Amino acid sequence: MLLSWLTGLAAGIILLHFLQKLAFPYFWDDFWYLLKVVRYGIRLETYALKGELFTVLDKFLSLAKKQPQKPFIIYEGDIHTYQDVDKKSSRVAHVFLNHSTLERGDTVALLMSNEPDFVHVWFGLAKLGCVVAFLNSNIRSNSLLHCIRSCEPRALVVGADLLGTVEEILPSLPEGITVWGMNDSVPQGVTSLKEKLGTASDKPVPRSLHVASSLKSPHLYIFTSGTTGLPKAAVISQLQALKGSAGLWAFGCTANDIIYITLPLYHSSGALLGIGGCIELGATCVLKKKFSASQFWNDCRKYNVTVFQYIGELCRYLCKQPKLLFTFDLVKYDFQKDEPIRNEQGWCLHVKKGEPGLLISRVNEKNPFFGYAGSKKHTEKKLLCDVFKKGDVYFNTGDLMVQDQDNFLYFWDRIGDTFRWKGENVATTEVADVIGMLDFIQETNAYGVTVRDYEGKAGMASIILKPNKSLDLEKVYEQVVTFLPAYACPRFLRIQEKMETTGTFKLQKFQLVEEGFNPLKISDPLYFMDNLKKSFVPLTKELYNQIMLGEVKL
After folding, report:
1. Residue 523: its pLDDT value, please?
2. Residue 37's Cα: distance from chain center in Å?
3. Contact at 8 Å (CB) between 280 and 59?
4. How far apart are CA 340 and CA 116, in angstroms?
């Protein structure tokens, strides 16, 4: 009797295991992951109940005491230990304490490429309780000025290799901003931070200067181009920074891992998930100035890399959201009207699995949206109201996603007036404004087009010339490379006689995107950006074929 009972039990367990594998193949992976995330959430709540506001900076400072000689950052072969970074960031803090009028809560803009000094300045200013605004190191001219004005900084710190970019806009900077350069030789009007660091103390600064009053207080501003217009400064709270730093730990990384970071530190992925993630683990990171496919595997072997960070559209979004029980919905989207589809009752509609939909997330007390710096209208535009019922509010990510039958999510496209290229958001309005500054251009419509074997979309601009004006292709080339980041420069031009508009008088992009840049299908003159000739050249059928075959790189 007992034997038959045990046999039946074993058979039942085997059957349940088989059914679980068949119906829920990822159940245990999801279960253990969820358990880790819940543990982290409980730990944060415990800190809060005890009145201990433990930030990413606090975690770093504790590691600097616990493991001072452990490598934290490896950069171009040089090792920077946790103690090194702690002392160098303290030097930065002492310079600003002694040679500036910065106070707790002030904003300081940081324009720097990937290098250890980025982290030194970031942490040094954080030790003073300052909010650091990360500026995209690719932008320049009017876009850079816009970003600086929108975050209203008291000071601007610039890397040695970007001083030339700032020198161009020095006369146009708002009054009251002091500019600091990380170089011995700096332009007139800029103070040498490097010179003052040489004599600064590396002693710890009082914790009272940076202790957080609330985990909801601002820690960083990270710029995003969003879905419309110029870049906007997203507010990253202390809590969001903590949740972002837990990403690598939640995905199974440990203190023994060596993390390879090539993503720009002005991005949330590089700064919060990358640097912050290493701090949460107490691990080592190999920091690169930029990604190099030819150096990647050699670096992995040289430094014994165990984890590398890949930019995923979802990861970029998740780092701004709770790690704890993240809920989302995918709703139907009207690509021509550029808005979510609503039924007769006015409610949004869920998509079916395998169908692209707009990724939205419920905004409430447990899942707050801290908005953008500056005008409230930027924050309000990111919120959808009365989505599934009266009074509900959802955050519009601007990302179109597809959920497959196994519930995995995949990035599909961006909505609105942006597209993705080279891992960056390109604001079409910015591109159109820059081209429209030329005196022979009447109207410009910028958009992204799909190119075989390339991720994202390459930039394209449709142009109408002013009456009795001729097209100067060299001037167009000079204009875009001077005033736009490299990733935002349109690779293709199309000359039209008129442009279609939507019912709300917005320029129609849908049909242009569909038509692409194929000279076999388009009768309008087409041109291709040729960096060797420093001009746009006619896009012939032969050149088109070379691009499609990968013989000409974009």
Report:
1. 92
2. 23
3. yes
4. 43
Paired residues of 340 in beta bridges: 333
Check residue 322 and give its pLDDT.
Answer: 36
SS3 360: strand
For residue 141, the model assigns a pLDDT of 85
Using CB atoms within 10 Å of the CB of residue 10, give its burial: 0 to 12 exposed, 13 to 18 middle, 19+ buried: exposed
User: Which of 394, 378, 291 shows the shortest CA–CA distance to 342?
Assistant: 394
> Cα separation of 478 and 474, whole Å?
6
Q: What is the dihedral sign for C-alpha 132, 486, 455, 381?
A: positive
Helix (H) or strand (E) holding 447: strand 441-449
Distance CA 367, CA 351 (A): 23
Angstrom distance (rounded) from CA 243 to CA 236: 11
DSSP assignment of 393-424 equals: EEEEEEEEEEE-TT--EEEEEE-TTEEEETTE
Averaged pLDDT of the chain: 87
CB 479 within 8 A of CB 471: no
**pLDDT at site 148:** 94
Question: Kind and range of the H or E element at 35?
Answer: helix 27-49
Q: Are 476 and 493 in contact (CB under 8 A)?
A: yes
Tell me if residue 50 falls in helix, strand or coil. Answer: coil
Of the two residues 312 and 357, the one the predictor is more confident about is: 357
Q: Is 534 helix (H, G, I), strand (E, B) or coil?
A: coil
Contact between 537 and 525 under an 8 Å Cβ cutoff? The reply is no
CA torsion angle 363 366 367 368 (round to 10): 80
If pLDDT is split at 50, 70 and 90, which confidence band does 324 have? very low
Helices (H), 67-104: 82-99
